[in-house]
């Protein structure tokens, strides 16, 4: 893995896990110092993140973590509501005991994070569940698109979400696993639509306040 790729992965992880909250400024000089690389290298990574909509770069203002508009937030979630149920029949065809065990283990991690009130980790684990589920379908192009939508949903929840956005009130993922175990495809599709629709209904217009970021501390293990 190239150095640029390592920096990209670390920054993406920090964004998705909300260590870099929506709206956080990303000064090239401070990131260059934190990672021990040139500003040119940091600029390349920021440009890649900007193409993927995780970062916004404005002339004379520099880069900052994308803070999605309400319209964008709704469009991201509407896209997931439309697309994710479509993959359920293919997922059901590939479903087996090993998959059920893997996803039940993920559900236990989600419940532990919620019990420990680790909101950022809960959001990350929820996204991972949906990403890995989509990858079980036979349409890798669609699965890749859903992966990007899940990452962008993390930004949406960071900006507008509430605790209810990732709690069992949105539907316990174990319920979906039970339906797949029983090969109840139509019911599983309905569950997914309801689950994602509930997440959409839980978002609030009240964004969170930005906090100062210590880049040297955040990326101290960058090597």
TrEMBL record:
InterPro entries given in the database record: GntR_C, TF_FadR/GntR_C, Tscrpt_reg_HTH_GntR, WH-like_DNA-bd_sf, WH_DNA-bd_sf
Classification via SUPFAM superfamilies: GntR ligand-binding domain-like (SSF48008), Winged helix' DNA-binding domain (SSF46785)
Annotated keywords: DNA-binding, Transcription, Transcription regulation
Domain HTH gntR-type: 1-68
Keyword Protease: no
Name of the protein: GntR family transcriptional regulator
């Amino acid at each position: 893995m190239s150095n640029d790729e390592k920096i990209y992965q670390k920054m993406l992880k920090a964004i998705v896990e909300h260590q870099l909250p929506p709206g956080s400024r990303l000064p090239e000089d401070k990131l260059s110092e934190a990672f021990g690389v040139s500003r040119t290298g940091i600029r390349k990574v920021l440009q890649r993140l900007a193409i993927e909509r995780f970062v916004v770069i404005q002339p004379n203002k520099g880069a900052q973590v994308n803070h999605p508009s309400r319209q964008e937030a709704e469009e991201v979630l509407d896209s997931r509501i439309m697309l994710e149920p479509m993959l359920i029949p293919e997922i059901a065809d590939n479903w087996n005991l090993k998959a059920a065990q893997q996803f039940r283990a993920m559900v236990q991690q989600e419940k532990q994070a919620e019990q420990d009130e680790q909101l950022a980790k809960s959001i990350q684990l929820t996204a991972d569940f949906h990403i890995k589920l989509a990858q079980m379908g036979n349409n890798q192009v669609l699965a890749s698109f859903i992966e990007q939508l899940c990452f962008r949903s993390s930004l949406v929840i960071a900006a507008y979400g509430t605790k209810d956005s990732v709690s069992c009130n949105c539907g316990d993922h174990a319920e979906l696993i039970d339906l797949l175990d029983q090969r109840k495809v139509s019911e599983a599709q309905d569950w997914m639509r309801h689950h994602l629709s509930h997440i959409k209904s839980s978002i609030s217009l009240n964004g969170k306040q930005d906090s100062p970021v210590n880049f040297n501390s955040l990326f101290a293990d960058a090597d």
